[in-house]
Amino acid sequence: MEKSALVPLLIQMEIAEEDNSGEEYPNEIHDYLSAFEKSLGAVDEMLKTMMSVSRSELLQKLDPLEQAKLDLVSAYTLNSMFWVYLATQGINPKEHPVKQELERIRTYMNRVKEITDKKMASKLDKGAAARFVRNALWEPAPENERKVKTSAKSKKRKVN
User: Fold this and answer.
1) What's the predicted TM-score (pTM) here?
2) Over the stretch 49-104, which tens digit does the pLDDT of each residue have?
3) For FRET with 101, which of 62, 69, 80, 130 sits at 20 to 30 Å CA-CA?
4) In sequence order, what are the residues at sequence separation of 6 or more whose Cβ sits closer than 8 angstroms to the Cβ of residue 86?
């Protein structure tokens, strides 16, 4: 779904809201509708912000991994909004191809997350790991050294 297709969808939703403003609805759902209206306002503001900057300008400022994240989040958001639109029109979105598209995007989001996690994972310093293991392990002293140490201790005790 393109930006140009999204704007008419939002306009349709606003027109439908204006048409239904005189209708009565149960008080139990008033809070839910208010929260939904707030969420729509937040989405609208976010979209206005994103549309105010040209895509090419935005992509120039980002590294390739960040560009991929932006593309995936944008695609997922638009498809999610289309899912909601289908549900408001009485169409079961679970039986619509949009479900497969959302799953495909989610798969790519998981791949990007794996790449990000690998980048953030600390690198193994083999030398430091070897020293740590060597010093952490207990090594018994050879018999000769043990005898020398005990005899030295016994001499010190005799002197005292």
Assistant:
1) 0.55
2) 878 888 888 888 889 999 999 899 989 999 998 999 999 999 999 999 999 999 99
3) 62
4) 92, 93, 96, 98
